Amino acid sequence: MPGSPRARRAGRPSPRPTAAAGPDAAGRHASAAGSGRGRRRMLRRPTGRRGRLVMIGAVVVSFLATATVVTASVAGEQVDGFTLFAETDVSRVPVDPDTRPVELGVRFTADRDGVVTAVRFLKAKGDRSRHRVNLWNADGERLATAVPKRESRSGWQHVVLPEPVEVEAGEVYIASYHTSRYRATQRYFERPVSAGPLRADGTAGVYAYGSGGFPRQTWKASNYWVDLAFEPTGSQQPEPSPSPTASAEPSPSLSPSASPTATPSATPSASPTGGTPAVLDLPRVPWEGGPAYYANFPQARASGWTDPSFFPIGVWYEGVYTQQDIDRDKAAGLNTYVMLTDQSDVALIRRNGMYAFIPQPFSDRGNESVGWVIGDEADMWGGPGNGTWTGNYPGQGPICTSSRDGCGLDVMKKESGTVPSGDRGLRYANYGKGVMFWQSDSDAGKFVNGFSSVVSNDIYWYTDPHVCTAPAEGPTYGVNKDNCRRAANYGLTMQRMRELDAMDGKRQPVWAFVEVGHPFTEDWAPTITGEQITGAVMNSLINEARGIQYFNHNFGGSCISQHVLRERCGDAVRPAVAEVNKRIASLAPVLNTQSYEWEFNNGLDTMLKAHDGSFYVFAMLGKDTPTGGHSLALPPGVTGDTAEVLFENRSVPISGGAIRDTFAKEHTYHIYKITP
User: Is the dihedral of CA 381, 386, 387, 389 positive or negative?
Assistant: First the structure.
């Protein structure tokens, strides 16, 4: 996890720091043990009067029509006020890799007496937490605090304080919020920012690690994108002022964290697959194009992967020798093989209308496939770094020529180089805990973005005996033994991979990896159930998986097998796998459209799509959300009296612009179809 110690091998923690745009910053600020780089500057403690709580009455003058006045709607209220960054384009502000709990703030002054009515902060995409905001004076006295009733999935959050707080001209105050996931821009405050009566200088961006406290440390004039709403008091109106004097669009080159893909237009003209025209005034989830993406690869295009009704559902490392093998796999709802045993019959696969990503030994049969498997978990057994690979695989001797330098990137380079020259098939790479947990974003991004055109990561949250407890693994994401065995964590893997994939400004499909049995040798480790498989698959789809991949091997437990979905070892789960795959196939035209961004409920994992005149809302519990009844607030434009609950033979009423439904288990999912 970004900002945490990494392990270069399983179970071997390493103090390798991460490159960060924010306060962690590879451990290089002065508060990091052993570091002398980066000078810590303490805030001055000015004397004078402190802020006081006051009720706004008729004495407050309304200020209209200036560039720095913002009107925001928060939980039904209209809130007016001056802000520091209301007119700033934040679409390219990167998410910092640091994930340690931290209080982030902005240090500001005002030219006039007035009141602070709200604290604003720029929420990082993928952050599912609710955040407490605070207002402080320069002495560290907390003047006000608030927790929002509801937050959107990302973007600016505007949190109204319980009562407005009076602030005095020329005095220093800090607005802050607490988080473990944030967006940051280094060197932003090297030029002072002014917006109306508000001022912020080079020491404006402040932070304090821990469970929440007065933020006073600074790092490279960073902006942590905390803001406020300020209303002057008195009888004299301030002169209208221009937008903030700092650069309106922070340069991504100032931060080692990569900038995400720019947010698409809020009003795109049509569904990317030619379905229903977009009718919602909402931003879209970044998108690599689905079927349109596969059109760039002749072998995938010739195989029909550009058809919006096709969705890849694969199985990992199978052997295909007879028609019976094909028939059993088709009955389970599979359509793709990723990796094959050496003697598998690729032509038989093709004749049956199925597809394969083949390993390099099949170089003479590349035209029978949609692409190539170019690597599996080289991030783990090769490790990060620029070392040289010996050519050995695990168990064959030394992996790297130097014991001090990882060589996983050289593994991937050489594996990729074995693909026949000029071949234009898809290239599939799978990674593991190195990319997910142990490596910095910079190292992990080199694996994810350097070699493949389809990528996945195999973290088995339901069955891995160690992922919940190893300090450098699940706990770095807030996943521990109490919330580890949950479907929502498979979505966490998708979020991590999609964020890494966005680092180079390009997009490739990220597929989900879900086990179907007992993939670990420890007999005492859990065995996944059919309901859990279904939940893991659905949560991965909600988090934008573009394909599903099943791990089909049992290495422990009561039934050892290399073909779980074909043999008796899979009897308990095969019906659930076949059913969820059938549902995916029926939903393919919906899944192959670009999702809208909307926060239905910050305790739920959700996805919103439009297709053929209807809206589709996918919903499941988040990793920390209890079972029971939950509401989903629908966005403007999604209207109706009832919502059909697909695959459940029931409907639920829409009341007050919301759906309320029960999620009985952590893996329960509901798909609502709403036709205006």
Answer: positive
Going 60 to 62 to 68 to 70, the CA torsion angle's sign is: positive
Token pair listed for 621: 């519990």
Token pair, residue 597, equals 């961004």
State whether residue 357 is helix, strand or coil: strand
| Token reading at 504 | 């180079």
3-class state of residue 371 by DSSP: strand
Query: pLDDT (tens digit, 9 = 90+) per residue, 348-387?
Result: 999 999 999 998 767 666 667 899 999 999 999 999 999 9
d(CA 598, CA 616): 12
Tokens representing residue 355 in the block: 């597809």
Report how far apart, in Å, the C-alpha atoms of 216 and of each of 135, 160, 174, 178, 357 are.
Answer: 13, 23, 9, 14, 53
Structure tokens at 492: 């966490």
CB contact at 8 A, 447 and 379: yes
Query: What CA–CA distance (Å, rounded) separates 676 from 616?
Result: 11
Residue 17 has phi, psi (to 5 degrees) of -80, 170
Neighbours of 638 (CB within 10 A): 25
Closest CA to 587 of 275, 295, 264, 270: 275
Closest C-alpha to 104, from 189, 167, 22: 22
What CA–CA distance (Å, rounded) separates 632 from 123?
20
Q: Among the listed ranges 40-49, 177-186, 420-429, 459-468, which one has the minimum average pLDDT value? A: 40-49
Contact indicator for 461, 485 with CB cutoff of 8 Å: yes
The pair of structure tokens assigned to 111 is 């030219």
Q: Which residues contact 166 (CB under 8 A, 6 or more apart)?
A: 51, 52, 53, 54, 113, 114, 115, 233
The residues near 180 (Cβ < 8 Å, ≥ 6 apart) are 99, 100, 101, 102, 129, 478
Q: How far does CA 220 lie from the centroid of its chain? A: 26
d(CA 543, CA 597): 11
Q: Among residues 297, 200, 276, 204, which one has the least CA distance to residue 244?
A: 200
What is the distance in angstroms between the CA of the first residue and the CA of the last residue of the chain? Answer: 42
The CA distance from 360 to 371, in Å, is 10
Which percentage of the chain shows pLDDT scores above 90? 64
Of 619, 631, 625, give the one whose Cα is nearest residue 659: 631
The sign of the torsion formed by the CA atoms of 253, 267, 537, 486 equals positive
Sign of CA dihedral 458, 461, 466, 468: positive
Q: What would the 3-class secondary structure string for 648-673 be? A: CCEEEEEECCEEEEEECCCCCEEEEE
Element (H, E) at 347: helix 346-351
Write the pLDDT tens digit of every residue in 77-109.
334 579 999 878 888 888 888 888 899 999 999
Per-residue pLDDT at 46 exceeds 70: no
CA angle 468, 584, 557 (to 5 degrees): 40
